[in-house]
Amino acid sequence: MKRSERIVAMTHHFKENPRKLISLPYFVDSFQAAKSSVSEDIDIIDEMFQSLGIGRIETTAGASGGVRYIPDFNHNQSRQFIDRLIHVLEDSKRILPGGYVYMSDVLGDYNYIREIGKVFGAAFKDVDLDYIVTVATKGIPLAYAVAEVLNVPVVIIRRDPKVTEGSTVSINYVSGSSRKIQTMALAKRSIQEDSNVLLIDDFMKAGGTIKGMENLMQEFNATVKGIAVLAEAEDEDEERRVEDYVSLLKIQEVNERSGAIKVVTGNYFNS
Amino acid sequence: MKRSERIVAMTHHFKENPRKLISLPYFVDSFQAAKSSVSEDIDIIDEMFQSLGIGRIETTAGASGGVRYIPDFNHNQSRQFIDRLIHVLEDSKRILPGGYVYMSDVLGDYNYIREIGKVFGAAFKDVDLDYIVTVATKGIPLAYAVAEVLNVPVVIIRRDPKVTEGSTVSINYVSGSSRKIQTMALAKRSIQEDSNVLLIDDFMKAGGTIKGMENLMQEFNATVKGIAVLAEAEDEDEERRVEDYVSLLKIQEVNERSGAIKVVTGNYFNS
To answer: pLDDT tens for residues A156-166?
Structure first.
């Protein structure tokens, strides 16, 4: 097999298996190539991935060693993508009764979701995680997109326990905006004790839902290592109950009467 | 830039943009390479993608022409993956009260979800689709995984309409197994009139939920072009209400007392 052919196959393999350790003999056997050729191939791919700003190939020496693709997404690319997203969202047609912003089309489009996953993946790339935890419904695609980059399983908290989940742990929490008491439930066997988790959701206002997720995680003795929200909005009525989080967007103004809508970058881009 | 470097960048680009038309001048300009070199690169990638069984690069001639990566997943690979999945599922520890099978860990693992997306993507690759429609909660990751392969947006039907969706159309339907009347709602602006849709869900027993989705699609004048379910189970009490569907798995027996669980391949593998 020629170098160019091996490079197609290896680039494909790395992109399908982010963060997974691949032994050099695996490639050597697959391609019937010399170890030195495979090493050179990997150097080329590593350099190109770095120059494309999409991560790097990490090499671990020794008997249990190998290579691993660590995806990344440089800050410039992240910022450009979020600026494009802001442009899409700042459309008065998106304003819904109650001052909400219609985002379901954006959240339904994998071309956006994939990029959001990359941005959050880069934001939390150095955090040691066992699970990514979200709550049904709209956080789910975001959770999977980040999970794909970080190679970590997703756990979905539900509003309604289902028979197909087995025994569940449930808590009540006060929704920030409506002040209503709501329930969250999570299957008992979905998280192992003493795990490290990343919480993710599409939207945060007063932070009641995230606070509820934090409380539920305590029931599982899990440590919340990070909180990711796609969009945050200011809540005039009360103080935010969540302090330490990463947001990509901030909805600053939604005026139903004038049709004005102002979206800016979230705190991930402050510095 | 050398051929091997261009090939890394192009393989990456194709894999990030399935089914999207890319003009040759885009590559020529990006790499400052001759058109003939870029064409040769594409031929190498095309041949290698085909020999890996992951699809092909389609070339369209003419002024509005270009190249497009059409992902595929050959039947052998699909079958091998499903056999592995069956092995994971046939574990008596997965049996839940009521004869259900715990699958949330599988559905939470992107390494499985990605492959399921490829299998369904191959099953429906020649169907002209505008949307992939699922119903909260567990069908969601499957829908996105297929959407990634087919480059089609996802639309999520909810059990509970939310303020962040705007006006919704809702219907009542009878859940097959519990005989309870339930509600499904979908945001009015989420589907355009006269669209072609693929319905997808994780599990089908009597087919009540899928039937409900079909009815809701009628309200949007949408045409159901296909139905995909990951796992089907036989319902002894009543006839299935859905006829034409593709399933990857069939749960044949779940015996709570003996702990016996038998899973076989679904109808996609009949023939």
So the answer is: 999 887 878 88
Same fold, B3-71 and B75-269: no
Tokens of B42: 């594409």
> DSSP class of residue B268?
G
* Positive or negative: CA dihedral B59, B65, B71, B72: negative
- Give me the pLDDT at residue A166, please: 87
Cα(B56)–Cα(B238) distance, integer angstroms:
44
SS3 of B255, please? strand
B148 vs A: CB within 8 A: yes
Please, are residues A236 and A177 in contact by the beta-carbon 8 Å criterion? Answer: no
Q: Where are the domains of chain B?
A: 3-71, 75-269
Interface of A with B in 54-113 (CB under 8 A): 54, 96-98, 100-105, 108-111, 113
The answer to whether A22 and A36 are in contact (CB under 8 A) is no
B12 and A CB contact within 8 Å = yes
Question: What does the pLDDT average to over A198-216?
Answer: 95
Q: What is the CA radius of gyration of chain B?
A: 21
The Cα–Cα gap between A220 and A8 comes to 43
CA nearest neighbour of A86 among A267, A263, A247 = A263
Q: At A62, is the pLDDT very low, low, confident or very high (cuts 50, 70, 90)? A: confident
Mean pLDDT by 10 residues, chain B (271 residues): 96 97 96 96 98 96 91 95 98 93 96 97 97 96 97 94 86 81 94 97 93 96 98 78 92 94 96 70
The DSSP output letter for B94 is G
Q: Which residues of B touch A48 (CB under 8 A)?
A: 5, 8-9
- Give the rounded percent of residues in chain A with a pLDDT score beyond 70: 97
The alpha carbon dihedral of A69, A74, A78, A81 has a sign of: negative
Structure tokens, A80: 């450009």
Contacts by residues B76-84 (CB-CB < 8 Å, ≥ 24 positions apart): B77/B53, B77/B118, B78/B118, B78/B119, B78/B122, B78/B268, B78/B269, B79/B265, B79/B269, B81/B115, B81/B119, B82/B119, B82/B248, B82/B249, B82/B265, B82/B266, B82/B269, B83/B265
CATH class of A75-269: alpha beta
CB atoms within 10 A of CB B28: 16
Predicted ipTM of the assembly: 0.94
Fold of A3-71: Arc Repressor Mutant, subunit A (1.10.10)
Q: What's the pLDDT at B103?
A: 95
